[in-house]
Amino acid sequence: MTQAWLDQPVFLTGLMKSGTTLLLGLMDGADGVLCYPDEPSFDRLWSRRYDDAEHMLRDWIYGTPNPIHLYKAMQEAHGEAFDPRGAAWAKEQYPLLSEIEQHCARSVLRGLDQADGESLFDRLQYLQALAEPPQEGLTRTALVRRTLQAFHRALRRPIGQPRAWAFKQPMPIVDPVFLDWFWAQFPAGKVVFIVRDPRAYYVSRIDYTRRSGLLQRVAALRRRLLILSAVEADYRQIAALHRRADPRACFVRYEDLVSDAAGVMQRVADFVGVPYTEAMSRPTKLGVAAEMPTATRAGGNTVFQSSKDRWRERLGPVETAMLEAATQPALDDFGYDKVSSPWVRALMAGLRSPLATLNRMRRKPVRLKIDLSRSQECLR
């Protein structure tokens, strides 16, 4: 019988570099919510075609860019446990493993294997449970449930029977198909969407390396215009999603989260339907204090605010006005103050429009590869 908590996922999402890792770390402190500690890439299952259930399961274990699956210790020590051909065969079939394993071993899962002298997670048990021969008719959604069950059983510090589970997956581009995919598989699921000031998000994507040659400067300017076009498109979609007013979705601002983590997480806890605890104001990973790249200081896990206004040090008045003209609907919807004058924004909008159109014509369109026609009952 399917356990009820497996049908109660909380999808933490937003644009890349918008604070999804911090949001997951704070959600980890919620009582009764099992948080998958990294990006599982569940959406990949709906972007690929499979011959049968075994093909799907093998690809899920070996081919998915999921750090828990690709971790070096798993490849070297546990490969034989779930495939007689071992990790060498896997690397030959999926070269991505070799490229990513060092990154995973260095940083992504530091703390999962060892924290305070105690192992938190039995990776071998997790992989063995995940790799059990698939039942006939195993669906994509059933494989997601199997992954969460295996992960829950492999925890060395049990959290009891969860009421819900949470995972994070930032969006490379904002597309409603991401949310449509999630709710098609889990109608009772909830989405927490984190939004960052578009000016700060833009700065996070810019390469500020000094360019000496004229051609290099022209290339850098064109890249900025491309990024500006992408930021405009993404934030228009975010504003449109926000205006849907879907009761299954909750929007939070990154700036509010780092300014008042307790207040924002109280609202998130009420939305998810779990009691708020003080542990939700400090980021953790499986209950152990964790550092976040932009929002905690080395040696501690207290959220700090200094990252939220760094864009002011990078953006000049012209670029700021151009960004504010491009993302005005989102700025208005989420209550971000504009610093440029209205007439300057109007001027920048007039100058930006033909340049942005030209760049959109020259760049290749980016689309998510999720295929909603691949239903739970059909592998192909």
How large a portion of the residues is in β-strands, by DSSP E? Answer: 5-15%
Number of beta strands: 7
End-to-end separation: 26 Å
Low-pLDDT segments, ≥5 res: 71-86, 102-111, 361-368, 375-380
Strand arrangement, major sheet: 2-3-1-4-5
Q: Helices and strands, in N-to-C order? A: EHEHHHHHHHHEHEHHEHHEEHHHH
**Apparent shape:** globular
Instruction: Please compute the radius of gyration using only Cα atoms.
Output: 22 Å
Structural class: alpha/beta
Average pLDDT across residues? 77
**What fraction, in percent, of the residue positions are helical?**
40-55%
Number of helices: 18
Which helices and strands appear, and what pairs or packs with what?
Layout: E1 9-14, H1 20-27, E2 33-35, H2 53-62, H3 67-70, H4 72-77, H5 79-82, H6 86-93, H7 96-108, H8 123-130, H9 140-153, E3 164-168, H10 176-185, E4 190-195, H11 198-205, H12 214-244, E5 249-253, H13 254-259, H14 261-272, E6 284-285, E7 288-289, H15 311-314, H16 317-326, H17 328-333, H18 342-362
Helix pairs in contact: 8-9, 11-12, 12-18, 16-18
How does this model look, in words?
It contains 18 helices and seven strands. By secondary structure, the chain is α/β, with parallel strands linked by helices. The protein has a five-stranded parallel beta sheet, with helices on both faces. A two-stranded antiparallel sheet has the order 6-7. Strand 6 and strand 7 form a beta hairpin. The chain starts with 8 loop residues before the first strand and ends in an 18-residue tail after the last helix.
